[in-house]
Amino acid sequence: xxAVLRQHAEQEYAHELAELSQQDKRQRPANWKLSPWAVxxxxxxxxxxxxxxxxxxxxxxxxxxEIAVATLATDRALLLxxxxxxxxxxxxxxxxAAISGDSTMLVQGTAGTGEESIRYGWNYAxxxxxxxxxxxxxATPVMRAMQDGKIARLEELTRIPAxxxxxxxxxxxxxxxxxxxxxxxxxxxxxxxxxATANDRDxxxxxxxxxxxxxxxxxxxxxxxxxxxxxxxxxxxxxxxGKALEIPAEKPPLEEIRRVVTIFRELRSGTTVDGKTKxxxxxxxxxxxxxxxxxxxxxxxxxxxxxxxxxxNDIAASLVGAVVKDPVQDRLIWLEYLETVVKxxxxxxxxxxxxxxxSE
Length: 360
Hints:
Layout: H1 9-12, H2 14-23, H3 36-44, E1 46-47, E2 53-54, H4 62-72, E3 77-82, H5 88-100, E4 106-108, H6 115-118, E5 120-122, H7 124-130, E6 137-139, H8 141-148, E7 151-155, H9 162-165, H10 168-174, E8 176-179, E9 184-187, E10 193-199, H11 210-213, E11 216-220, H12 227-245, H13 254-269, H14 288-305, H15 312-323, H16 329-342, H17 349-359
Parallel strand pairs: 3-10, 3-11, 4-7, 7-10
Antiparallel strand pairs: 1-2, 5-6, 8-9
């Protein structure tokens, strides 16, 4: 069997989960693989009593992760809210992996997501041949999570039409899924809960009803507080992607990562890091996820078309592409930023020339 492109969290970090499970002597909720303390340790990292080092999956406030895990130990579902690129899906996957040992109970929300994607569907060949039966019923990831006492994940909740969202109300409040065609129901086994994610930028697309909001505890995931945190996040993810994709390039120098992160933070905040110069913000999000993409793409350029070492000209094209989403307004903002900030900064002349060449 060929190697998969991307392993699930419970596969990639199986050794850490196994070590945590062995060392974890605290009380575990029903059907949880780890105690709440161990789940948080898996997410934020730390050293166990035997000296084993757990790598951080989320770099940020430990208290936020404690609140998220505590929510999942109650009968309330968890809603992870934030702007694009704040690791909502990443945190959701790792929470499910640590709690249930299975992060695959996933429904991806879109404008076309129907009720049958959340509740259940039918094998129409069997339905026509045999009539309604449990054998003809096709269980969704949510139904399987209820039956097995696991965590279900629902991505981009606010992209789902409002009438489909409301199918979650009975499920989350009564912990049961009626199957009226068979005059029966599926009741949730202990350990079942749901993690949903929603995008700040999608507010107003399909707002959650007040009834549904009450079924969730909301945890807002912020952008990284400091440049050091964001550089660390980008470095770790780029290193991980580089190994998975077998990119034939050296690890990117911290200074190149710092330059990309600095540009993104300045354009996001509307001011330079020293606070001396005001800059205009483009229409894009420019989150850590985009910074990871820019550096990773630069590594591919360096590995396949360069000398294997990351240089300014390797990241320039993807950097400009990440910033300039609107070819008119964003381009003007970017050119002004290049001339007033990048050009004047010591040691950034190579990046200025590479970006200017691409932007012409």
